[in-house]
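Need the bound structure for FE2/S2 (inorganic) cluster, inputs here:
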Amino acid sequence: MYINFWYPVALSEELKDEPIRARILGQNFVAFRDSKGQPHTLSDTCPHRGGSLSAGIIRDDCIQCPYHGWRYDGAGYCRRIPSLGKDAKIPKRARVDAYPTQEQNGIVFTFLGDLEEEHRPPIMPVAELEDGKNWRANWLTYEADINFERSIENGLDAGHNEFVHPTHGHEGTDEDYKVNALDYVDNMFGDKKWGFGFWHAFKSPSSKKDSPQIKEASDERMAGSGIVGPNQMWTYIVFGEDSEFRQYMFECPMEQNHVKIFLINMRKMMLDENMDQAIADRCMAIARQDIVILEKLNPVLTPDTNSKEFLVPADEPCIKYRKLLDGWKKKGWKIDSRKVDANIGKKAYAIPSPGRNKQKGWVLDKIPLS
Ligand code: FES
Ligand SMILES: [Fe+2]
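Answer from helper R.:
Posting the output first, comments after.
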C-alpha cells in the first residue's frame, strides 16, 4: 500500500452532516463537512489520549473528540481544549494530520501523503458525466477480500475474460482463441509517469444472445484498459459505433487483503433510467465472477519477484504495472506493513500530511515506510 496518492473516501451523497469513519491503507480517518459543505479528512486518532474522532460530533466547523471534547478544524488545528478553560492558549503540537480533500465525479477523494500540490498525481476525470445527453452513469461500491494490486492486475489482464466471464468470450471452447497483440498508449489522464493503457481486439459472440438490446455490428470487440497511479483504472468496451461502456474504478485498499471498489459505469446506450438497475446488476454479476477467482489467489499479495510466477506475453501489462509500483516504492512511498502489523494495538501511526513539511514535533509517529 502506497502513500502519496488519492483515495476514495465515500460517495459524495454518503457524506452528509454526520462525520464518517473511513478505513484506508490500514488506518482510520474521519471525514466531515463544514458549514459550507466543504469536505475534510483527518487522521482519526486524537493526539490527546487516542480518542476516535469519527465517533465525535461536528461543532463550529470542527470535529469534536468524544472523549474530552477537544475540537479540530478542517486543517487539523486544535481550536479548543475544554479542560484548560475558556480562553486558554492552544499548544501547537495539539494538531492532527489533515489531508487534501477533493470532491470529483460524485466521490470524495483524499490525498494521503505529504507531497505538495504541484507534485501530486491526478484524479481520473470522468468527462462523460458532463454529457448527460449521450451518456448515463451508475455508481457502484463493493468490498472484497482481495489485495488491491491483484484487483488492478485483473483489470489489466486481457487473458482472463475468455475464462472468467461467460458473457465476454467462449468459455474456453474456441480452439482458435489467443490474446492478440496489445496496442499500448500513454496515460490518458496526465503525465506518463503515473500510468499507461492499452487496446485489445477480441471476439465475443456470446454477448449477442445475453444482451440482445446491444446493437452489435459484428463479433469483433475493442477493449481498452489503463491505470493512473496504483489504484485508479479505466476500462472501455466498444461494442459498436453507438454502443460503448466506459468504466472508471477507484480502488480503496482498506487493508492489504481487503479492498473497497468505487466503480462508475458510463454507458452510451440504453440511456433510459429504467435500465439503471439492470446495468448495475450486470456490472455486479461480472464483478462477482472476478471476486470468486481473486479471493482464492495464492499468495494473497503479488510475489516480491516476478520469477515466482510464470508470466507470459499476455501478462505484460501486469509487469508494466509492477514496474511502476516498484518506482513508487523506491521513492519511499510504500508502507512497511510488516512493521505496522508488529505494533498493532501498541502504537498509533499517522500517514504524513503536507502539514508535516512545515511543522515539527507531531504527537503521532509517521507510518513506517519501506
Ligand atoms: S482523547 Fe480526544 S480529547 Fe481526549
Ligand atoms: Fe474480469
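Comments: The first helix runs from residue 148 to 155. The CA atoms of residues 170 and 176 lie 10 Å apart.
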